[in-house]
Amino acid sequence: MYESIDRYIDRLIGESTPEKPMWNIENIRHGKPAHWNYIDGCMITALLAASEITGRQEYAEFAERFIDYYVNEDGSIRGYSMDKFNLDDVNEGRVLFDLYRTSGKEKYKKAIYLLHEQLEKQPRTVTGNFWHKKIYPDQVWLDGIYMAQVFSTRFNEEFGSADYSDMMKQILNVRKYMFDTNKGLLYHGIDMSGKVFWADKETRCSANFWLRAIGWFAVALADIIGYISNDSDREKLVGIFREVIDGVAKYADPKTYMYYQVVDRGGSEGNYLETSGSSMIAYAMMKGARLGVLDRKYAVFGRRTFDGICERYLRVSLDGKLELGGICLVAGLGPEDNKRRDGSYEYYISEPVVENDAKGVAPFVLCYTEVKRMLLGKN
Predict the structure, then answer these.
(1) What pTM did the predictor assign?
(2) 306 exposed, middle or buried (CB, 10 Å; 0-12, 13-18, 19+)?
(3) Which end of the chain is more exposed for a tag (fewer CB within 10 A), N or C?
(4) pLDDT reported for residue 377
(5) SS (H, E, C) the chain
(6) CA-angle at 298, arms to 293 and 302, nearest 5°
(7) Is there a contact between 147 and 91 (Cβ–Cβ < 8 Å)?
(8) d(CA 42, CA 217)
(9) For residue range 318-359, what is the model confidence (pLDDT) as tens digits?
(10) What pLDDT does 201 receive?
(11) Which pLDDT score, from 0 to 100, does residue 378 have?
(12) Where are the domains of the chain?
């Protein structure tokens, strides 16, 4: 099956344009105009990684054409509004560092500084953490660590003073307030004000452990550890990373090594093995083992998860095309006018399950790059 994944990636770029990428199912379903967003950012990140490990230059060329459509010569970005203070919108900016390095286009550097300006102005909770979005006041979501802090780390490493104190404080706060030591899992979100309808009155956390949220956090740690140069901060992050991976690994399905949409409720009616979060955990495991910060057993565990996803959800359609299924389209908490998104078990299993959405495809491709590294003996 591995050899067919290259064909799948070829299809992804062959059937996509910057205006209408086939992997952005949310935009397609809702008829949204093309705009700067984290879903595309995840896919372009994966394509650049795939280009590096496979030597397929056409992946990188597609990525550059894609981003060129959005980034103007003055560094402004099509469909981006800073005043939304949406951490998701920062995520796609991480690819700008790689494209600036390879192309030398100054507009990429200007766009990097534009997105960094958002983080400088981003509203914060009383603990100093970024609000997830302007429409989610006082809320910290695990997703936001991936969306903002990988970019922030790269900025500080390449354009800043390599001062990681703010990033470290925000991650340490997530560990302090959102980690359940009994379960070994992290809650999806926390409302520091304790006022929002979905928050527990005592812990202020959401009610359940959503797989993809934990996956975002695990991938963020794996990626940041790969970039950060400060040994002391790196070791602190490694400690949290090991704790997160050790915690979630206990919940792997013994047959497929995949993980459930609501992680600790594997036997509950309606729960299902979910592709995006499983791919994220597998990628974090394999990368962590490759970087030497996780036990080597996790390279094996991660690859087993990847193989489980291939066997369960990578299928050939009647017209001969590969389709990747089992992907939760989206899940969130609130806002106040959307009481359905209450963080309950029933809510998480009610969201649509789709094929070929980049929130699942991108980490799946990243897993593939880690498997390729193993097969090729590359670090």
Answers:
(1) 0.98
(2) buried
(3) C
(4) 83
(5) CHHHHHHHHHHHHHCCCCCCCCCCHHHHHHCCCCCCCHHHHHHHHHHHHHHHHHCCHHHHHHHHHHHHHHECCCCCECCCCHHHCCCHHHHCCHHHHHHHHHHCCHHHHHHHHHHHHHHHHCCECCCCCECCCCCCCCEEEHHHHHHHHHHHHHHHHHCCCCCCHHHHHHHHHHHHHHEECCCCEECCEEECCCCCCCCCCCCCECCCCEHHHHHHHHHHHHHHHHHCCCHHHHHHHHHHHHHHHHHHHCCCCCCCCCCECECCCCCCCCCCECHHHHHHHHHHHHHHHHCCCCCCHHHHHHHHHHHHHHHHHEEECCCCCEEECCEECCCCCCCCCCCCCCCCHHHHCCCCEECCCHHHHHHHHHHHHHHHHHHHCCC
(6) 125
(7) yes
(8) 14
(9) 888 999 999 999 999 999 999 999 999 999 999 999 999 999
(10) 95
(11) 77
(12) 2-376
- Architecture, CATH, for domain 2-376: Alpha/alpha barrel (1.50)
pLDDT at position 320, please?
Answer: 85
- Contacts for 78 with CB less than 8 Å, ≥ 6 apart: 34, 35, 36, 69, 70, 71, 72
For 338, residues 6+ apart whose C-beta sits below 8 A from its C-beta are none
Query: Tell me, what's the pLDDT at 376?
Result: 87
| Amino acid found at 4 | S
